[in-house]
Amino acid sequence: MSAVREQLPEGRYGRSADARADRKLKIVGAVLGVLVLGVVGWIGWDYVGGQKISAEVIKFKVVSDKAVEVHLEVRKDAGARGYCTVRSQAENGAEVGRADFRFDQDTDRIDQVVTLITTKRGTSAELLGCHTD
Fold first, then answer.
1. How far apart are CA 53 and CA 100, in angstroms?
2. How distant is the alpha carbon of residue 3 from its chain centre?
3. pTM metric for this prediction
């Protein structure tokens, strides 16, 4: 090992010749970052807060080769009107039934068992989504 210490080339690394320009770029970058985060937050809040009707499948029961009973729990604004789409698939994954079920009651929570008619024996029940009118 040598006693000679290597030096970095003068002016190549370190502070920029124009420190004010660097400071302005940092401020502009920070402001743009805050704006982007604000927009993303607002879109997320609008999406979650804008959902006037939502539901989940509590359980389902295959009652025959042509029908599946689905127990849905629906949450919505009391005055909201809308529907939820449910589907069933066969053992091989093929869709054998799909239907929309309306929920227009003036209440904010509905527990309801609906019957989904299928073309063949369904082995599942899946909530695809809910929509307001």
1. 14
2. 62
3. 0.62
